[in-house]
Design brief:
The complex is a heterodimer. Chain A is mostly beta strands. Chain A has strands at 4-5, 10-14, 19-25, 32-38, 45-51, 56-58, 62-67, 72-77, 86-96, 99-104, 108-113. Chain A is globular and about 45 Å long. Chain B is built from no helices and eleven strands. In chain B, strands 2, 4, 5, 6, 9, 10 and 11 form a seven-stranded mixed sheet that branches. In chain B, strands 1-3-8-7 form a four-stranded antiparallel sheet, with no helix packed on it. In chain B, a hairpin with a 3-residue loop joins strand 4 (31-38) and strand 5 (42-51). The chains are: A mainly beta, B mainly beta.
Chain lengths: 114, 116
C-alpha cells in the first residue's frame, strides 16, 4: 500500500555534528511534505515544509530536500544541539476522495550526545 | 491565543465505558483532526473536519465518532471503549480548506488514554 516510511528508526549523533533524517514515500501524487519534531510528553511541533514543485527549502539550521525521482525526503539539521533530541516525523499530503489527508511516517528518534 | 487545547490529559476507562475527548482551538481554523499515536505506529488519522457541520473518516475511524457543531470544537467520542483503544490521542488544526487544508497542523498536547 501507499505509505510514508523512514529508513532508520533511531539516529545518534554528537553535539555539533550535522544530522540527516531520511524518509521515503510511495505516492507520486502527494503534493506537499512536512516535518515535525516531538519531544517526550509533548505534541508534535512544526519544523519545515516543502511543496512538490520545489527541491529544497531552508529554515533556521534545518534544510529539507525533496527528490521526486526516487520519492525521497530528508531533513538536515546543522550543528545539532542536545535540544534537538526528539522524535522526528515526516508527513505527506495526499488526496483522499474530495479532501486532502496528511499522513505520517512512524518517526525517527534522534539522540544527541554531548 | 491558547492554541489547541485538549482535555483531559490523562484518562483511565474500563472496557465498555464511553467518554468524550475534548478539543478546542481559538485560532479560527477551519480544519481540525484527530490522530492516535501508538508505539512503533506513528501518528494515524482517525477523523477530520474541513469546517463546521462537515466530518470525514481517516485511516482508523472504527470505534470513534466525531461531530463539528462549531468552528472551535471537535470532540472525539468513544461509545464503548476497548483495550485496543489504549493510546495517546492528539487533536490538530490548521488554516484553510480544500487543497490548502491540513497544512502546518498545530497540535494539542495530547490525551493519554488507558482502557483496562
Amino acid at each position: 500500500g501507499e505509505s510514508v516510511g523512514l529508513h532508520l528508526p533511531t539516529l545518534s549523533v554528537q553535539e555539533g555534528d550535522n544530522s540527516i533524517i531520511n524518509c521515503a514515500y510511495s505516492n507520486s501524487a502527494s503534493d506537499y511534505f512536512i516535518w515535525y519534531k516531538q519531544e517526550s510528553g509533548k505534541g508534535p511541533q512544526f519544523i519545515i515544509d516543502i511543496r512538490s514543485n520545489m527541491d529544497k527549502r531552508q529554515g533556521q539550521r534545518v534544510t529539507v530536500l525533496l527528490n521526486k525521482t526516487v520519492k525521497h525526503l530528508s531533513l538536515q539539521i546543522a550543528a545539532t544541539q542536545p535540544g534537538d533530541s526528539a522524535v522526528y516525523f515526516c508527513g505527506e499530503r495526499r488526496r483522499g476522495g474530495s479532501n486532502y489527508k496528511l499522513t505520517f511516517g512512524k518517526g525517527t528518534l534522534l539522540t544527541v550526545n554531548p | 491565543n491558547a492554541g489547541v487545547t485538549q482535555t483531559p490529559k490523562f484518562q483511565v476507562l474500563k472496557t465498555g465505558q464511553s467518554m468524550t475527548l475534548q478539543c478546542a482551538q481559538d485560532m479560527n481554523h477551519e480544519y481540525m483532526s484527530w490522530y492516535r499515536q501508538d508505539p512503533g505506529m506513528g501518528l494515524r488519522l482517525i477523523h477530520y473536519s474541513v469546517g463546521a457541520g462537515i466530518t470525514d473518516q481517516g485511516e482508523v475511524p472504527n470505534g470513534y465518532n466525531v461531530s463539528r457543531s462549531t468552528t472551535e470544537d471537535f470532540p472525539l467520542r468513544l461509545l464503548s471503549a476497548a483495550p485496543s483503544q489504549t493510546s495517546v490521542y492528539f487533536c490538530a488544526s490548521s488554516y484553510g480548506t480544500g487543497a490548502r487544508a491540513n497544512e502546518k497542523l498545530f497540535f494539542g498536547s495530547g490525551t493519554q488514554l488507558s482502557v483496562l
